[in-house]
Design a protein that fits this description.
The structure holds 2 protein chains of 2 kinds.
Chain A (H helix, E strand, L loop, with lengths): L1 H13 E4 H15 L5 H8 L9 H14 L2 H13 L5 H17 L4 H16 L4 H11 L10 H10 L3 H29 L9 H10 L6 H10 L5 H19 L9 H31 L2 H10 L5 H18 L2 H18 L4 H15 L7 H10 L3 H24 L1 H12 L4
Helix pairs in contact in A: 1-2, 2-14, 3-14, 4-6, 4-13, 4-14, 5-6, 5-11, 6-7, 6-8, 6-10, 7-8, 7-19, 8-19, 8-20, 9-10, 9-17, 9-18, 10-18, 10-20, 10-21, 12-13, 14-17, 15-17, 16-18, 17-18, 18-20, 19-20
Chain B lengths: L1 H41 L6 H22 L5 E3 L7 H35 L3 E3 L2 E2 L1 H4 L1 H19 L11 H11 L4 H9 L17 H6 L2
Antiparallel strand pairs in B: 2-3
Helix pairs in contact in B: 1-2, 1-5, 1-7, 2-5, 3-5
The chains are: A mainly alpha, B mainly alpha.
Amino acid sequence: MSTLLILGSLLLAAAGAPLFAVLAAIAIIAFTSAGIQPVAVIVELYRMASQPTLLAIPLFTLAGYLLAESGAPQRLVRVSHAFFGWMPGGLAVVALLVCSFFTAFTGASGITIVALGGLLFPVLIKEGYPQRFSLGLLTSSGSLGLLFPPSLPLILFAMVASISVDHLFAAGLLPGVLLILALSLYSGRIANRQHIPRIPFRSREAWAALKEAGWELPLPLVILVGIYGGFFTATEAASITSAYLVIVEVLIHRDIHPVRDLPRIARESMVLVGGILVILGSALGLTNYLIDAQIPRAIFQFIQGAITSKWMFLIALNIFLLIVGALMDIFSAIIVVVPLILPIAKEFGVNPVHLGIIFLTNLEIGYSTPPVGLNLFISSFRFRKPVLSLYRAALPFLGILMIALIVITYWEGLSLGLVRLIYGTAP
Amino acid sequence: MFRRGVAVLDRGLNVVVSVVVVALLLGMVALSFTQVLLRNLVGGGITWADVVLRHLVLAVGMFGAVLAARQGRQISIDVISRVVSPGTKALLAWIVGLFTILVSVLMSRAALVFLASEKSFSSELASGLPAWPFELVIPLGFALIALQVLLNLLLGRKPVEPGGLDSPLDAAAEDTAGESPPEEKGESGERANPDSEDAASDDPRGKDAPGEEAE
């Protein structure tokens, strides 16, 4: 009976039922059939309120929305253009850098493409970049930067896996740089082939642009130095960032009107947070039940026959996560899949922090993977191009990201080296 | 008459929840920043601030989920409705909606049981600060989600495409749609709603709006 109900719930999930309702339903059914009152689901949901990192989620989300709705995109594009325009593929590199900066704050919820795409696309075309290249670049940049602090998926992963956010933040830095570097090299090659003129460095423009972006530019640095210098925690960084951005964008730049815009932006940002938290809360009951019922152990024993080494496990994990990333959005994927994968990965000797980086890189790529990667749809919407043409445009970028993914997956030191350097010991 | 009543209720709920969410969030920013300043400059913070802040996140999350339900932006994996006929799609929307209402009511009821036990144990967040008023947001939130989904069904509201997760298209669309605060926006959006049978143009946050934004 309960198996049937659970299958019914899963079917409804496929029919578009909100994920929180599906997870809550399965949790209630599972608990009830085990003779436990449904109140257990609420007890687990309420455990959220004991997580110190919880506060960072709404605060960083607000910060990201404030940045996206202010004039920060223009200012950041201008300043990076002034400093990196001289490089081969300068403007493409600018797009990569600014998109990463943005995604780190907005958590790859698609805002990057909307806020920056319209700004960068016409300029790329004007400078002579091929249309297909430009579309692919902006589509795959929509989730680039996910590995940089303070991105929401990093925080969420740390919470769900109960590992230190600080460790995960540090682990993401070098792999994140690798992804940008790989795409930059490719962009440089394309620019050279198209004979796109480089823009000479002009110190006056650079200085003016620097002054203009002076309020926003230091943010990532302040967060990193603050956390790793031991001045404040990730949650305190969220508090400082959100308060700082309210002051800067509302009072100093006056991009955001305190009455007309601020309440609207605050509300919009919380729609996203509400969507995530209600899933997280409903899933906590279920995952706890699954772990009590030793489901991950059973899966481990089941796959042990086919997968015998850590390396084989990592290959299987990559394939599995690419499929997950193409089907699910990143937040639900973290909440639903991580509790199941984590114990299995531990059995195979994969470090949880490294797992986090592999996991998020996979999902980042999944965002632009046909047929249903979310970035493809957002780009198609934003640039008014058929989704099929975006599939083609995204392909070369996917290939490069895939190679970088292999490096990140099989070179543990790239992720953990910095963590060991900062904290002295293995995480 | 009935439809109008439903529309009024829907609008009223949206205004109240929006105001609460915005007030809570900005309050959280102020309180947490004060706490950081006190801790780093004076060397001691407000003792109850951290635990209260985490409970406010819970509240903002629950109410934010109500807003997400209204805008059809609850996170979901939708594979079927893209390939079925419009008639089947409408039927599915009702089934899915009724399921969501049922589950939300069950969660709300379970949360009330939880609340009762917390009250009987007189749990406290900090000394002298009872926990249950803060925990009230859990049953209330789920009850409001159920109510909102019911209102959506009665008004024939359609979810946002594509994905359902994405605020940005929507946010950017609202951006150009007008500069009014959230309360008024809901109102102007619903004007066409009550009498219109044409579901496609029903929701201003639906397909039409993001298109305008790209121009």
